[in-house]
């Protein structure tokens, strides 16, 4: 297709404002998916996405659309809305010239509407403001058209009003996309340059790479090179997704599609890399994406230690599909061999863990998540701590923790509630604005550690679901943080160490010692469970001694029964971990780690 006839656009919106539903309607109206093959959230291919009703991965689909008798090719990229997946959004934006900014006509502008709009503006995209869900009785299209027009600049009458559910206004929106979104520009005669914006591992076909061609063209059977890794391969297949993969005779300027090279090694197809021809290579790579920085770390361990190699293999494969994933091996006294994995946030952690368990059939346990701390020792040594058990024991000069700038949009009646929550979480207010009479924007600096856990849940429940949150990293600050260790009979149990604010150390100690007392079975001797900061014990519980003699119940000489009992005890022992001389069933660690 000639570049003049191509339009590459994405749909951006706050979570649940209806992107996936609108995408469904577009697929149907353009005839890409027949009515009878239609299912809700067509592009959310992963089971987790469909069950949770959220989009995690971006998707690219090509749709034909005629305007005034001229056929056009629209490439639509559906993007996720949750703050943890902003990274996916920004990659998709770089492959587009335009963005449909979708706002729920019953909700108005929310925190991620703003965040995504700013991202689109940074990428110089043409913004098409659209109000969705006009079929809802609670919709207030006039009011929010005004709000939206104020935000993006322009006339309220210019804001399109659609319903992804009924299909109302969607044809007009497709026309508007053709009219307003600029056609891609590139040099058709130059050496090929295509940006990799995603790739997935397919069991049968190997690595499938999604690209947007900027210059030149890519053709089947020719050899291509990945510019950063210098790896070269034969192009076995090239094509477009519409809505299933369709092989084509090649991809030219401005086109979006997929490549298959038969490569199995997942590391050779890096998101953000540039693909070029081997015979006629480009000299400069396209500006890639900066690698996303993990914000939250957690240890991931196989429940069954022998699954460790499988876990490593699974992480390698998942990484291909999730550039934000970071991991390195670690060992724990309590849990054995595993990985310390970096995530963009808690939802990201949950999704990764669930994908590993489902797609790779693993049974996993994750340790309590923590953020990165920078520690300066008194002798000037700098230490980066991603695992609490590595927190230095020596003389510490200062500890710095990551902070974020948070933007919270809330109805004005909840302003006090939201401020209260932010104060509890060591927040510092930066500003407050009324977006309209009844909608307030609050800006805070908050420690990341305070918001990654249950902040969002708290915000939602205290505002009856009305407040929305967005945040971005904003450097670090010094804080009075300490490491709390948990000791079993004087031996530290690494998986339970935590870095917490000094004021919350006692609560953590009491909580963990109490929990472990419940879970760890009695031993043949008394076992103290202590919580300590350095050498200072701040909480203590005791597991009382019990004599466990499995033969006690066997009178007389039934030797086979005795043997059976001893065998059983031995079996049980295999599943035990020794912390010093204390035997702890692995299940106990798992229970203690997962019960909150
Ligand atoms: P994420 O992918 O998680 O970001 O969500 P999304 O923005 O893709 O939203 P989705 O399309 O999943 O829609 C969210 C909810 O709104 C669903 O329950 C939809 O059925 C509903 N919905 C979407 N569009 C409309 C609409 O036009 N009218 C009405 N009444 N409901 C809609």
TrEMBL record:
Q: According to its UniProt record, which protein family does this protein belong to?
A: Belongs to the GTP-binding elongation factor family. LepA subfamily. Belongs to the TRAFAC class translation factor GTPase superfamily. Classic translation factor GTPase family. LepA subfamily.
Enumerate the spans annotated as Tr-type G domain. Answer: 4-185
Q: What is this protein called?
A: Elongation factor 4
Query: E.C. number, please?
Result: 3.6.5.n1
Q: Which residues bind GTP?
A: 16-21, 132-135
User: SUPFAM superfamilies, alphabetically?
Assistant: EF-G C-terminal domain-like, P-loop containing nucleoside triphosphate hydrolases, Translation proteins
Q: Where in the cell is it found?
A: Cell membrane
Please give the organism.
Promicromonospora thailandica
Enumerate the catalysed reactions: GTP + H2O = GDP + phosphate + H(+)
